[in-house]
Specification:
two-stranded parallel ribbon; single chain; 7 strands; alpha/beta; five-stranded parallel beta sheet
């Protein structure tokens, strides 16, 4: 199968059911030169399911500053690279946006392959109003900073979407209840 045109391909991946992987996403992941991913174990399972053998490189919060220059050099020299996250749309609360910004700044071709997004999927499934919402992303780890951020959000009359890790969920929910009150 021939390679795709050069550039960065931002590819959404399933958020729970591998059957949600689009045919277009599969084709792009098969045809690029390499895949930049958060965790090769997670992406490896996805690639294995669809018999995709494209080489992977780890790209996440902790190494993005070191890896990004090499990815950009490859892209400048005509490579086709896919960017994926462990689940959902890359660049949503992860360092993918910095690679995307760099590509835009350097006029490197950029293509987004749409698909799953946990924030929007959760919003629709919640039954809360969807006509006006704010995606906050992750709240600060420390309670004091988290409470301050929640205070800023408390006056917003829109559905609030917040990401949180399982380890901090109980504490964050308690802080949300104390600041936001009995809010749907």
């Amino acid at each position: 199968m021939p390679k795709v045109k050069n550039g960065l391909f931002v590819v959404a991946t399933p958020i729970g059911n591998l059957g949600d992987m689009s045919a277009r996403a599969q084709e792009v992941l098969t045809r690029v030169n390499k895949i930049a991913c958060e965790d090769t174990r997670v992406t490896g399972k996805l690639l294995s399911r669809f018999s995709i053998n494209t080489p992977m490189i780890v790209y996440h919060d902790h190494n993005a500053g070191k890896i990004r220059p090499g990815l950009l050099a490859d892209l400048r020299h005509g490579a086709a690279i896919a960017l994926v996250s462990d689940a959902g749309m890359p660049a949503i609360s992860d360092p993918g946006y910095k690679l995307i910004q760099a590509c835009i700044n350097e006029n490197i071709p950029l293509t987004v392959i749409p698909g799953a997004n946990a924030a929007l999927t959760g919003l629709v499934q919640s039954g809360l109003p969807t006509d006006r919402f704010l995606f906050q992303g992750y709240l600060p780890v420390k309670s004091g900073a988290r409470l301050s951020e929640l205070e800023e959000l408390s006056g917003i009359s829109a559905t609030l979407i917040v990401y949180e890790s399982g380890k901090r969920l109980a504490r964050s929910l308690a802080d949300m209840a104390s600041v936001l009150g009995d809010r749907p």
